[in-house]
Amino acid sequence: MTVRTTPIPLEDIESLAVGAWILGTGGGGSPYLGLLNMRQLYAEGRQVSLMDPFDLADDDDVAVVSNMGAPLVGQERLTDSRTVARAVEIMERYQGRKFRAVMSLEIGGGNAIQPLMAAAHLGIPVVDADCMGRAFPEAQMTSFAIGDLQPWPLSMADCRGQEVIVARVTTWKWMERVSRKACVELGSVASTCKAPRTGREVKDWAIHHTTTKAIGLGRAVRAAQRRHSDPIAAILEAEGGLRLFAGKVSDIARRTTEGFLRGTATIEGLDGDRGARMEIAFQNEWAVAWRDGVPVATVPDLICVLDAVTGEAIGTETLRYGQRVAVVALPAPPILMTPKGLEHVGPRAFGYDIEFRSVFAPTAAE
Amino acid sequence: MRRIGIDVGGTNTDAVLIAGSNVVRAVKTATTADVTGGILAALKALSRFPEVTGQPIDAVMIGTTHFINAVVQGRSLNRVGALRIGLPAGATLPPFCDWPPALADLVRGEVAMVEGGHDYDGRPFMPLDRAAVTAAAHRFAAAGLKAVAIASVFSPIDPSCETEAAEIVRTIIPDAAITCSHELGRIGLLERENAALMNAALAELARETVAAFEAAIAESGLKAPLYITQNDGTVMLAAHAMRQPVLSFASGATNSMRGAAFLSGIADAMVIDVGGTTTDIGQLRHGFPREANGVVEVGGVRTLFRMPDLLSIGLGGGSHVEADGDVVGPLSVGHRLTTEALVFGGSRLTTSDVAVAAGMLELGDRARVAHLDPALIGRMLARAHAMVEENVDRMKTDSAPLPLIAVGGGAFLVPDAVAGTSQVVRVTHGDCANAVGAAIAQVSGEIDQVFQGMGRTEAVAAATGLAQDRAVAAGADAATLQTIEVEDIPLAYLPGNALRVRVRVVGILGRRASRRRPPPAAPS
């Protein structure tokens, strides 16, 4: 069987890094080191192809990859494309089957580039899909978990040669707990291959064409930067987003609980929003935004805090006093907004007693 | 204490003599192509005053942009042997992998990566491969390299792999200039390594420059120890600064801000330093510029070391004025002001010409700008004021109005009232604020480390103690130490409520530099 795969030029990977950082909604880790890896791999003559999820056969096996751990540790150990590939090979050995393709766990942040790094070594294509459509902090916050697909097995590799298989867990939350503990032992950073998916499962439950979407978003920002036009407007146009607020960061409170970075950023309004104030709470990613005390946007809608001038995303770890920012909302993938989806990734899953109402919902529906 | 402060800028070399807390004399001379010529001229100009030569001088402090210009222009750089300790981590991203190719081609001598390094909690990551370090050093020696940069994974938490590797390299290349990354940077391997590589690339230039500075001081007849000012508003003895030229990259702007604080007596304020071509805006906190938190690009290379958080805009005393006054800068006549501006008989309308026409500034021949349309003057001043107001507001960190201290030769472009500030403060000798800042520089110590298993108060106290040890080791008088910056960041996905703490303390330079001992190593 011949399947169409499209080579991804390096230029598009540069755009992917910019777009994925925006879709990371403040978390997911910076794609910078992944991008550097891809530049090296392309300089060595390797190339990666993109495959439409609907070109998968029902019984194809797809590897779902991601890096796990503390971004800080990643900044010292650096991301190594071979370790990502090894996590996939460990799973192939364990399952006794070869993968047809790899795909991303989350298209938001650094994990958008991990499958490309694995694919460059394995010589198989990357499926144009992920299972978050953005970034989320926990394993059960995926479309596969929402679909009640099997959460196990999981393979994990560190760069020193440690290999871990989580053979069986009873729930996605147990997978999060067990794998997180193992990751901490390895030095708080590891490459993982999540529960393998069949082509049928990817077609039924993945969030489709998100790699293309992230590339398009990054392209729009980079083109606007080159033209010296407003990159925020370009983002809104590319994704059908909404501008929620423009202002200056006036306070940022961070704390870690249960290993997550939590806190609240306060933004004082400027220009058209002068006199107003926005508060945005985060758990690794931006979760709920209040304007003058009234919630205006919540997960799973994507809340993105962007540099007002460059349009580039600002992470919850790097946001700082005085930054000029634009806060925008981008539409969430529909599956995350179903009743089952909201159980996993709605405001209450993050501890906020707020009813989810998309900022993109037609007002007539009230 | 009687000190001479010198700032070597792109256009002018300024020098001041400070006795206690008084500015005794200030002079401005033109910067020369060989840099030291300007310093000598400034020192000679200063020495004409009897109060300068009458009594001994305790110290000469020089701030210079010489080293950062060398990197940006890609000149006078030597080749470097790069030693990375941390395999098997990071193997796919070797040293120089994120440098602009042209600059990398100039600096890359040999690259070696070996096993070793630490974890974030201080546990060894891999044992140091001493044989591989020895082999790398032999390769560097065979290639004739005299400068070596060493970077090890998590060396800010435990520098022992870097220091041990440095000892091995030194036994094989005894006269090598060795830079260890933990002396410069914070957590972030590539950026810290980049800083170390850049520092090593400047080794020869730094040695020659400092020697030339010392020769200029000797030739002027002064007998005083020479200090070089650093990015954070503190100083290092020239002999030490020579080993860390990257730490003086942004010292000019910092000196201006420190000088502004000193001259105005205000420790918490916004500062605007208007030069010939650019205006730097920053915030003073406890008399020091607020630091940039993240990555700072120098010559297209991402680096991480102490730098002031500054906003530079294209506005200055030499900025071009276009379109009936509605467009000001970013082009500037720069050091050609005295030939190209209208008041000097040139043909280019500059902000200085408009200020002279408006009667705000005495410069050149006012008759040459008598024809300027008052409406143009009004529009240009309004434009400059808007630029100042908008960008000062951009750099403020909260809405409370702070005073704004205006310094630099182009300070006339700053209006007397700026929205969002409580008042605009102008000071005597404000045009030499940078040299004043150099003269009053203090000595600092810094720590940036992850603490686990202790409360926030305990962790900050532990970090403060370590920073104080480092400041005293660098020459500070222990009785004058002051904590000027504490930052703690809880870390995601690490066990034991990990807290990264950064503390900086400063103290007044002790009179006895001979008491200096080497900086203590961070505990593992």
From TrEMBL, chain A:
Gene3D superfamilies assigned: CV3147-like, CV3147-like domain
Domain named S-Me-THD-like C-terminal: residues: 172-359
SUPFAM superfamilies: CV3147-like
Chain ranges of the S-Me-THD N-terminal domain: 11-167
Superkingdom classification of source: Bacteria
Pfam families the record matches: S-Me-THD_C, S-Me-THD_N
InterPro entries (UniProt xref): S-Me-THD-like_C, S-Me-THD_C_sf, S-Me-THD_N, S-Me-THD_N_sf
Signal peptide: none
Protein name: DUF917 domain-containing protein
UniProt source species: Stella humosa
